[in-house]
Amino acid sequence: MRIGVLALQGDFHKHGEHLKRLGLDPVYVRTRDDVLSIDGLIIPGGESTTIGKLLVDFGLDASLKERLDQGLPVFGTCAGMILMAKEIVGREQFKLNLLDISVERNAYGRQIDSFEAEFEHSLPLQGPLHGVFIRAPRIAKVGPEVKVLASFEDCPVLVQQEKYLAASFHPELTENLELHRYFLSLVERAKEEGPAVPTLNDADRGRKTGAP
Ligand SMILES: NC(=O)CC[C@H](N)C(=O)O
User: Fold this and answer.
1) Which atom in ligand 1 lies closest to the alpha carbon of residue 77?
2) Is 38's pLDDT higher than 60?
3) Which of 80, 102, 106, 121 lies deepest, with the highest CB count within 10 Å?
4) Separation between Cα atoms, residue 137 and residue 149, nearest integer Å
5) Burial class (CB in 10 A: 0-12, 13-18, 19+), 11
6) How much is the pLDDT for 194?
7) Can you tell me the mean pLDDT for 182-198?
8) Residues in CB range of 154: below 8 A, 6 or more apart
9) What is the residue with the minimal CA distance to atom 7 of ligand 1?
10) How far apart are CA 96 and CA 87, in angstroms?
11) How high is the pLDDT of residue 74?
12) Residues acting as catalytic residues
């Protein structure tokens, strides 16, 4: 299983270290070929406007769109979650429109207001989750297809919509590997199910050979 960590800006190395502890060799994604070679993608925390801008500047948006159309599972943390959201309140910035959530950037306060918290969750994992919140986005709304897996002070902080998992906190800054392990199970399942839709190449091949 090849898991990519988008490595344009932010704390991608911390995610890579978690993947290594789980026995994987992470792909630090910086090129189109990297994007095309992976089975799952982690988008780290950092600065969502910068990550979005670099995604476009590095020309990764088209290949990423191609892989997303094929059903690439994605796990976003903090800025990564912002990039996955369908709505970013009051901001026009690059986003991937994957998750039916509305997010408010920096809604928990400034860097100095960063905090850690423990909260319960509905995943089949041992013990509570521990979250590190750093200039974290708040999930203001979730759509009907979105499962809320954990909340803190009545606000969702961990959500899932099919193969998309997102956290407003940083699980990669704790010793707990459980969320990464859970994401790997989503990737495993997506791999077993195969591509969501025929790829452009498959469609082309069909046309050329006259196959249906
Ligand atoms: N820790 C983080 O990823 C912070 C996210 C950042 N405040 C943003 O809005 O993009």
Assistant:
1) 3
2) yes
3) 80
4) 16
5) buried
6) 83
7) 87
8) none
9) 135
10) 10
11) 98
12) 78, 170, 172
